[in-house]
Amino acid sequence: MASVLEVTHPLPEIAVLTLNRPDKLNALSYELVEALHAELDALAADNTCRVAVLTGAGRGFCSGLDLGAPSPDEAGGGTEFPRSGMRWQERIADLTAKIHRLRQPVIAAVNGVAYGGGLGIAAACDIRVAGRSAKFCTQFIKLGLGGCDIGVSYTLPRIVGAGTAFDLILTARAVDADEALRLGLVSRIADSALDEALTIAETLCGYGKFGLESTKQVLWANLDAGSLEAALHLENRSQILASTSGEMREAASKVLRKPDPPPRLQPASKNARKVHAECNFGGRG
């Protein structure tokens, strides 16, 4: 039986987490939620992996909670509700907090639908890349629930601004990849979201380990900074700590090293000029 979460390493420094319930558009079941928790915990303790990519198998990124699958409370007879229901709710929601807390940058490669909890998970990532088939929707309020779930009331206003976030959450309207790019919900559109995400991941792996991790931490922390002075204080501490690493000295030496001069262009031969002229003018003199 296939795992509901596949983890691959195209490079030792890059982990690709693929939600693998394609027949359900990768909807969140109890098993998938627990598998994600286990893998996020493993990544938090992994000093080799430097960037994580999150994507979905098949036609969708994640369609949200699988409403047809039994919750842990229902599977046990439902005698502990609402206490157990709250714990299950918190367990799902804590996925976004774990992504947020990871030292590694996390890139969401969104192929197809990112609805409800799927949008919440994508919004918790540090970078979002959309495939051309991507579609985003908060969806919660359409299901008779409150519109705010799995962190979207925190993440969306910081990504697209408060006004647009209120619109998306209250109306639960769907937006396609082009509109998501205009709104700033994603930063790139590509024919293959996963290939583009892996290209970004390789770029990030070329930077210093401490510098990359501290950049993510400072960016998120300073979204809630109380003042410019507080933000500068955190930046200053991070830069001084980074400057003490050997990585900074190595990177600086590469930047300062003079590149090899480009090869000098040789003048075209008479034959080459003749061919060029014939291509442009059909050989007419």
Overall description:
There is one protein chain. By secondary structure, this protein is α/β, with parallel strands linked by helices. It is 48% helix and 14% strand. The chain contains twelve helices and nine strands. It has helices at 30-44, 72-75, 83-101, 117-124, 152-160, 162-171, 177-183, 193-205, 209-222, 228-243, 246-256, 270-281; strands spanning 5-11, 14-19, 51-56, 106-110, 113-115, 127-131, 135-137, 175-176, 188-190. It has a six-stranded mixed sheet, sandwiched between helices. A three-stranded mixed sheet has the order 5-7-8. It starts with a strand and ends with a helix. The model is unreliable at 262-285 (pLDDT under 50).
Helix content: 40-55%
CA-based shape:
globular
Q: How many helix segments?
A: 12
Question: What strand order characterises the main sheet?
Answer: 1-2-3-4-6-9
- Round the mean pLDDT to the nearest integer and report it: 88
Provide the CATH top-level class of the largest domain: Alpha Beta
CATH architecture of the largest domain, by name, is Alpha-Beta Complex
Report the span from N to C terminus: 73 Å
H and E string: EEHEHHEEHEEHHEHEHHHHH
Beta-strand proportion: 5-15%
InterPro entries: ClpP/crotonase-like_dom_sf (IPR029045), Enoyl-CoA_hydra/iso (IPR001753), Enoyl-CoA_hydra_C (IPR014748)
Family: Belongs to the enoyl-CoA hydratase/isomerase family.
Protein name: 1,2-epoxyphenylacetyl-CoA isomerase
Region (Disordered): 254-273
